[in-house]
Amino acid sequence: MARSIFSRIKDKTDTMAAYLPYESVYYESIADCYKYVRQGMVVLFAFVVLLIILLCHKELQPENFRYLFKYIDVDPVAISANYNDIYYNTNDNTVFTFYKGDLAIIGDGRIKLYNIAGNNILDEKLETENAMCSSDGKYLVMYYPGEKSISVFNSFSKLYSIEYDYPVMYASAGSNGSFSVVTRDENYRSTVYIYNSSFKSAYTWRSNEKYAVSAAISPNGKNAAVLTYIQNEGTFLREITVRNISKDKQILSSSSEGGMPLKVGFFENDCMYIVNSDGVEFYNKDFEKTTSVSFESELQFYNTFSDGAVFITGKNKSDTTVHYFDSKGNKKLTENFQYTVLDAKIIDDIIYLLTDTEIYRFSNRAIAKAKIEGGAEAMFLFNDGNVMVCYETQTNLIKESDFKKIN
């Protein structure tokens, strides 16, 4: 084929030589050469595309392309410039969460996702009316306490589901797409399954003596942490176990006695935290304990984020203390608060507290607040300082300019 192409170029060149200057003949022949090369590249590209379709057609699903193009150019949670009010229906069991810049509403046996422009981009039926959700990772992992299954979603569809022989107690999504599931099986009191981002089993932990309450995978996907307990005369013997699943090697096993263990998790920098009903522990990325804090009063609720955690403690909900720690366990703020806190969020070392009538903002000891309508249920933050507040049937945007300093 190459010989015939160049033969035609030579014949054309010889014919043109009698009528055109040498430079024109030379550049014309080069142009023809590039034309044939371009045609050959088009044919080669078409062949490669056809080969990919033949070999990978099972993986080429529409939602994969939709998911790619949704996040290829923009950071959807950076600003609220495209915000419009979002309208929906809720019930007493509705859960609100943010997933890659979209508002996820879980309740009444369905999961619905809305982008900040107010458009409904996902509406899927769930296994039961009551569902729990882990949205901190690459996927949305839905589990149904007391039921025997979990479901994995992205922003556009249900990707995968797993059925178990016994009820699922807990599930957690990892930032790299891996996830963990706490359940049991026929011969063991507790079983923890760790799956990679391809939904394949990566590690299994079992015990016939301990109860597992939480499990997590480090952001690098190498380490799995399992939090367990044994109840003993009114107290709990707690144990945290961390295993390098890529090397099948245990790298931490530590026990303590005290209140009920609640959750183990990882921050974005691979540091680990453990939340108990009576305190919190922080570990660095080498799994050395850096901070251990005991709460002086009851833990009301807590929220953890990629770079820190907020804990609300108090004897009652209207007389509380706000504790804010960064991902290394450094205490950033301790503040008494005389209001019932409905939600708490942090961004760039700024703490936002949602009450029934105001949002309070703590920044370098400066406090500001913005008035809101009553009946708020949750809030979510944008990087431009605006706040989206979720009510029973719709959202409302509180602008950064709405906050007024009070000290």
Concise synopsis of the structure shown:
With 407 residues, this protein is mainly beta. Helices cover 15% and strands 47% of the residues.
Radius of gyration: 28 Å
Q: Name the beta content range.
A: over 45%
Strand order of the biggest β-sheet = 25-26-27-28-32
Q: Any idea what the shape is?
A: globular
Structural class: mainly beta
Mean pLDDT across all amino acids:
86
How would you sum up the major sheet?
A: 5 strands, antiparallel
The proportion of residues forming helix, as a percent range, comes to 10-25%
Instruction: Return residue spans where pLDDT drops below 50 for at least 5 consecutive residues.
Output: 69-76
Written description of the protein model:
There is one protein chain. The chain has 407 residues and is mainly β. The protein is built from 3 helices and 32 strands. It has helices spanning 2-17, 22-56, 62-70; strands at residues 95-99, 102-107, 110-114, 120-125, 132-134, 140-143, 149-153, 158-163, 170-173, 179-185, 188-195, 201-207, 211-217, 223-232, 235-244, 249-258, 261-266, 272-276, 279-283, 289-294, 299-304, 308-316, 319-326, 331-337, 343-347, 350-354, 358-363, 366-371, 378-381, 387-390, 395-398, 404-405. The protein has a 5-stranded antiparallel beta sheet with strand order 25-26-27-28-32, with no helix packed on it. A 4-stranded antiparallel beta sheet has the order 1-2-3-4, with no helix packed on it. Strand 10 (179-185) and strand 11 (188-195) form a beta hairpin. The protein is globular, with a radius of gyration of 28 Å. Residues 69-76 have low confidence and may be disordered.
